[in-house]
Write a structure and sequence with these properties.
By secondary structure, this protein is an alpha+beta fold. The chain folds into 2 domains: about 30 residues, no CATH class; about 80 residues, no CATH class. It has 5 helices and 4 strands. The strands form 2 sheets. It has a two-stranded antiparallel ribbon. The chain is elongated. The N terminus is likely disordered.
Length: about 140
């Protein structure tokens, strides 16, 4: 995906709803093409914390004048991993909520993990919703 390309996420077809206000759930389905496009674009950006990685890369570039071992720092901050299915599911939910429900997730779940590959206790996703008044 080119840097200038707008990442879009299909709304999907609603297949069920459950619960009652203020807490409802909806089930959506995508076509295979929509799913693949989501995984290549906005879902991957959430899953691999592209924004956070960019911030770390910028921060590390300021360490060039120090005696820190750049190779070691880069390995620590950019460790690649194969995501678990639950992580992909949460990334899909977060990307969908950001795109279609005006939600904001102030930090990546990845930044809360104590060790790579850990499963976090507590709420799955913590995000904020911006209402019609901008609050």
């Amino acid at each position: 995906m080119d840097a200038g390309e707008i990442m879009t996420l299909a709304r999907g077809e609603e297949v069920y709803t459950t619960g009652a206000l203020p807490c409802i759930g909806i089930g959506l389905k995508w076509s295979g093409e929509e799913y693949s496009a989501a995984l290549r674009g906005p879902v991957a950006a959430v899953l691999f914390d592209d924004a956070g990685r960019g911030e770390v890369e910028e921060m590390l570039s300021g360490f060039t004048d120090t005696h820190f071992d750049q190779t070691r720092l880069n390995r620590i901050f950019s460790g690649s991993r194969y995501p678990k299915p639950w992580q992909v599911g949460e990334a899909i939910a977060e990307a969908w909520l950001v795109t279609h429900r005006n939600c904001y997730f102030p930090w990546s779940v990845e930044r809360d993990m104590r060790k790579q590959g850990a499963s976090l206790p507590g709420a799955d996703l913590v995000g904020l919703h911006v209402d019609a008044h901008g609050n």
